[in-house]
Amino acid sequence: MTTISVTTWSLEQTAPTDLRPAAVPEGDVRVVRSEVPSPEFSRFLYASVGGDIRWTDRLGWTYAQWLEHLDRPGVETWVAHDRGTPAGYVELEAQEDGVVEIVYFGLVAAFRGRRIGGHLLSYGTARAWDLADRWPGLKPTRRVWLHTCSKDGEHAMDNYRRRGFTLFDTKVEEETQVRTPGPWPGAYPG
């Protein structure tokens, strides 16, 4: 098996004032919360956004695993739509002591390069900061964090930094190289 060296960067914001919002893109772009836990829809987003950048950790999840994850307090999925078509998403997960992780964020390949990503990240980060307002019993957010890696899109790190995230950790690990799964087997070469 072939291995590749993967660098993972962890970034954070420690105050809502750290967020530097992107401009709203032109056209009919809307970001809407997917309020009904839907394993089918969430798996569609995960596979469609991450298929060409080797998101594989959730592909083997069962329906029950997806539902259990999505139905937890403080887990939210915010979806960007371009003229009604799902273009990408951001998944938030409340953690202990007022910490919120942006677990997944990205766009379907056909929607990249249209300035939707900066807007979606801005919107999703703002929703991470006000997450406790929608979930009684959660502590107010005091920190929002995420990680990105060298397998992600070439503009990912720049987008995070432009939105006000700062680096707090870097790790380099060897990973087994996997074939790009696409949203369905064989969708992308690689």
Automatic annotation (TrEMBL):
It is an enzyme of class 2 (transferase). Keywords: Acyltransferase, Transferase. GO terms for molecular function: acyltransferase activity. Pfam families: Acetyltransf_1. InterPro entries: Acyl_CoA_acyltransferase, GNAT_dom. Its EC number is 2.3.-.-. Residues 39-190 form the N-acetyltransferase domain. PROSITE patterns: GNAT. This is GNAT family N-acetyltransferase.
